Amino acid sequence: MYDVKLLIDGAWSASSDGQWSPIVNPATEEQVGRHAIATSEDLSRAAEAAERGFRLWRRKTSLERSAILRGAATRLRENARAIGEDITRENGKIIGESIAEVNWAADTLDWYAEEGRRAYGRIIPEKMPDMHQYVAKEPVGPVLALSPWNWPLVTSTRKVAPALAAGCSVILKPAEETPSAAVALAKALLDAGLPSGVLGIVMGIPGEISRQLIAAPQIRKVSFTGSVPVGKLLAAQAAEAGLKRMTLELGGHAPVIIWDDADVDDAVKKLIPVKFRTSGQVCSSPSRFFVHNAVRERFVARLVEGVAALRLGNGMDDGVTLGPLTSERRLNAVGRLVEDAVSKGAKLCAGGQRHGTVGYFFEPTVLDSVSDAATLATEEIFGPVIPVIGFDSYEEVIGKANASTLGLSAYVFTRSLEMANRFSRDIESGMVGVNTLLVSMVEAPFGGVKESGYGQEGGIEGIDPYMVNKFVSQAFA
Ligand code: NAD
């Protein structure tokens, strides 16, 4: 049993009224620890500390900030196994994925350590004599970062690293299910020399924390990764609280198009590990499988073989390739979506139900001939379920793919250059993979269109949301 405390002004503490909430291992349903529940007084202190931290941190040189981010990256890598075990214990994903997540977070810190040094602004060539005019990039101010439970370390680092690199202070609220990764990130940064108050960690009742801190005068920017309904609520609150800037990375319902000329075996080989990563609880996960009717039967048969080879179990155990869902809420939601699809005519080809009676395990599931009327045809699945929908023409499939209110990532498998180009142009989506599922990497922007949100994380674009442009126009005399 362990305690996850609040980090306020450089000190780890219980909440001011001593309230705690349990942390549960989704593979065993046992309580493994508890986290503090921040009070309103704790949140006020965190906001004041963030303001002081900002005034101090923005005056550091880019090199000083860069060295601290790099130092934190090294510390994460050195402790990758232990941090990975914490992630698996709280989230359920298999340990190999958790360790890979730690290394990805370290790479993100390294990337923004350098991007901060390149936040140049620009000088405008003289338009009138004896004038000096330039655009300076300045940190936006104290940031409220709200991260989810599916990638607890990477999603937190994608906000904290660029914000710190830009010169902002941050209050990070990790998801209450998986708070240890945020603690590991904060410890790495503090060990590397981050001054007190520059990073705070709070957790407790999400609605109360976001309401108070979004409205807090010290907070100038909010970044949220999570669901569409919560994103809309927070965006409204941020507007009301003084048109505060927002980055929203919300859900996805990624279409995968398997064209009739695709290498079906290769596509399935690539799709299975990515689809079942983190038990399908990934916003960029392939989610709606549109398969040309000429190859659908073969594709479904390969999928069923691939799924049969997965080993469901505790993510900490050797040989396990698929862990549980992270919460009972997700287990019930996924079960309901599958039942609904079957009741509306889908053919159950593999899985379809909860696995065992202890832990939030759901069988890897393949559904064929899913009707447009099924709820999962329009609603994000966020679980280990593959719905296959047949099609015959490009117009039909691009229409269905774009009918979603979400547009985060999309994939096509084809040997045709023309098809690859058409799809990449026509699809309404923030990221596109052609014969690959690799659309998320430190070097590239990650973010969606439509209700998937706005603003991007990652790449050279990922630091912009934490800076404002200031134009200075100066006459010599
Ligand atoms: P949910 O809507 O209950 O919560 C989503 C997240 O928002 C959670 O981390 C929760 O703690 C937080 N949250 C809820 N209310 C909040 C509030 N008022 N203020 C601040 N934070 C608040 O959904 P869920 O069951 O936890 O997750 C499933 C859905 O969330 C899926 O549909 C998925 O799209 C979305 N999700 C997306 C991502 C992503 O990477 N984009 C990550 C996790 C969840």
UniProtKB/TrEMBL annotation:
Protein name, UniProt field: Succinate-semialdehyde dehydrogenase/glutarate-semialdehyde dehydrogenase
Molecular function in Gene Ontology: succinate-semialdehyde dehydrogenase (NAD+) activity
Keyword Oxidoreductase: yes
SUPFAM superfamilies in alphabetical order: ALDH-like
Keywords carried by this UniProt record: Oxidoreductase
Classification via CDD domains: ALDH_F5_SSADH_GabD
Classification via Pfam families: Aldedh
UniProt entry tagged with the keyword Oxidoreductase: yes
InterPro entries attached to this UniProt entry: Ald_DH/histidinol_DH (IPR016161), Ald_DH_C (IPR016163), Ald_DH_N (IPR016162), Aldehyde_DH_dom (IPR015590), Aldehyde_DH_Superfamily (IPR050740)
Entry's family note: Belongs to the aldehyde dehydrogenase family.
Organism: Chelatococcus asaccharovorans
Origin superkingdom: Bacteria
Domain Aldehyde dehydrogenase: 12-472
Lineage: Bacteria, Pseudomonadati, Pseudomonadota, Alphaproteobacteria, Hyphomicrobiales
GO BP field: gamma-aminobutyric acid catabolic process
